[in-house]
Amino acid sequence: MANHALLRRGRNISTFSGLATNLNTILRLCQQRLVKRFSLLFAVGLGLSLMVAACSAPTSVAPNSTPTASQNRVVRIGHQKFDPFTLVKARGGLEERLKPLGVSVEWTEFQSGPPLLEALNAGSIDIGRTGDAPPVVAQAADAPLVYVGGGAAKPQSSGVVVPANSSIKTLADLRGKKVAFTKGSSANYLVVKAIESGGLKFSDIKPAYLSPADARSAFEQGNVDAWVIWDPFFAAVQKQKDVRVLVNGQGLAANRDFYLGSRSFAQKNADIIEAVREETQMVAQWADANPTEVVKILSPILGVEPAILDVVTKRRGYEFETMSDEMVAEQQEIADTFFKLKLIPKPVKVEEIVWKPS
């Protein structure tokens, strides 16, 4: 960048006829510019060094003291296009709840669970909400994550769809067909359980691993035979396209929300996690009692028709509960299934990464 800047300076100088031939003048100007740049870089480097030293220096904290607003902690929350955190963010109460703890909130949206957990693993976010399968895949990859909570079962919020005029009438008809879904997502587990219920094996279908947006495009263009997807994409395709639902998750997959945190963040910030849980639970109770208001809030935010959101809100909840034995057992079933199918490289014990605040 310095060379380009000097060339531009040289071009500007060349426009003045009196200086165009004065090489010594140009060299002197270049030298002065480099000196100034070096001085600036040195000053910035020194400033950064002092900042790092200040941040690294041990601080004196009174025993049993609690964080104050002056400490300016931040919680970075990942959410998907439509999940409980989307509504929590829209309501705006979490920021107010966290102010007494000296905590601000940063929000990041993801299209699906796998990239959200990648960000959590990379330290880009602190807490995130996903479907049921992504945490299993992350645990098998030794990601330093912990379950900090779960939601209510919502099996009707995802399903397997085909075009209305498709020759596929039953799950057994999926043999040899190309089925689109997001790899490592809750849809991945649903498709496994669905085809098993139809008497097939996972190897009997042709998986097309696509994001929701790409999967919808492939589905509409006839490049895949079936699509396994969750709300609001599921409700949208039901409303907007001429499709048939072969099966939803009822009796196959609970399709719960799960809340994950980085292990290091959870160990140090139990107060923040509890505040986030309490606020989400309060919003969940409000949402259950006010479905029409939920639709009014989320429709312009998500760019989804109110009629579609009305369907979505009626078949899901927004809870953030502590992990139960039932939730752990469901997740263990997913883990065992994925290992059997070699979708994860090793067996895992879900209970080992369930966060237990001290």
* Model regions low in confidence, pLDDT < 50 over at least 5 residues: 1-70
CATH topology of the largest domain: D-Maltodextrin-Binding Protein, domain 2
Number of helices, counting only DSSP H or I runs of 4 residues or more: 15
Mean pLDDT: 83
Extended strand count: 10
Q: Rg from C-alpha positions?
A: 27 Å
Major beta sheet, strand line-up: 2-1-3-10-4
- Strand content is 15-25%
Q: Which CATH architecture of the largest domain would you pick?
A: 3-Layer(aba) Sandwich
Domain count, please report it.
2
CATH top level label of the largest domain? Alpha Beta
Q: Can you tell me the overall shape?
A: globular
Order of helices and strands: HHHEHHEHEHEEEHEHEHEEHHHHH
Report helical residue fraction: 40-55%
Structural class: alpha/beta
**Head-to-tail CA distance between termini:** 52 Å
Q: Keywords, please?
A:
single chain, 358 residues, D-Maltodextrin-Binding Protein, domain 2, five-stranded mixed β-sheet, 15 helices, 49% helix, disordered N terminus
Helix/strand layout:
Blueprint: H1 2-14, H2 17-20, H3 23-56, E1 73-80, H4 84-91, H5 93-98, E2 103-110, H6 113-122, E3 127-130, H7 133-140, E4 145-150, E5 158-163, E6 178-181, H8 186-197, E7 206-209, H9 212-220, E8 226-230, H10 233-240, E9 243-248, E10 258-262, H11 263-268, H12 270-289, H13 291-302, H14 306-314, H15 325-340
Parallel strand pairs: 1-2, 1-3, 6-7, 6-8
Antiparallel strand pairs: 3-10, 4-10, 5-8, 5-9
Helix pairs in contact: 1-3, 4-12, 4-13, 6-7, 13-14
